[in-house]
Amino acid sequence: MGARRRELAVLERDTAPLERIRTPFPRVSYDEAVEILRQRGLPFVRGGDFGSPDETALAEHFDQPVIVHRFPAASKAFYMKADPERPEASLSVDVLAPEGYGEIIGGGQREDDYDVLCERVRAHDLSQDTFSWYLDLRRYGSVPHGGFGMGVERVVAWMCGLAHVREAIPYPRMLHRLTP
């Protein structure tokens, strides 16, 4: 917290939940997360992606950010690499924030094999033409690589204790305003 405590006080942010956070964050597999949801009585169907109530329940269970890894390959994007030990799972990860803020980071290892990518595009019933630019990036070889996306507005909303993520958007787009 340090020097930022004053700024959070201006926002009337209760800093106690932030002060309880310790690293490293808990890490659980998708399968372990599903078991936690079932133990908490949530009607989650294995194989799907988590919805807002599921993410909230998982973060509440740990009372701090939690890392969930190895989601089912079928629930993730076609470019996610399959787990070599469990091909039905992907080498993917989500970081869930506590206090109901949900997923703040999503990422994973990307598929680098051109032939596997082409098959995935077909399996997901996507247009080869639409993704030709992406496939061309791998056509002549690639290296193992990964990527992630962080929802900056979601992180800001969580850290500041804002009621809704839209309060953290620096240049909101609205029906009457489409440019900054």
UniProtKB/TrEMBL annotation:
It holds the Pfam family tRNA-synt_2. Gene3D superfamilies: Bira Bifunctional Protein, Domain 2. The keyword Translocase does not apply. One of its GO terms (molecular function) is aminoacyl-tRNA ligase activity. InterPro entries: Aa-tRNA-synt_II, aa-tRNA-synth_II, aa-tRNA-synth_II/BPL/LPL, Asp/Asn-tRNA-synth_IIb. One of its GO terms (biological process) is asparaginyl-tRNA aminoacylation. The keyword Kinase does not apply. It comes from the Eukaryota. Residues 6-180 form the Aminoacyl-transfer RNA synthetases class-II family profile domain. SUPFAM superfamilies: Class II aaRS and biotin synthetases. Keywords: Aminoacyl-tRNA synthetase, ATP-binding, Ligase, Nucleotide-binding, Protein biosynthesis. PANTHER family: ASPARAGINE--TRNA LIGASE, MITOCHONDRIAL-RELATED, ASPARTYL/LYSYL-TRNA SYNTHETASE. This is Asparagine--tRNA ligase. It comes from Geodia barretti (Barrett's horny sponge).
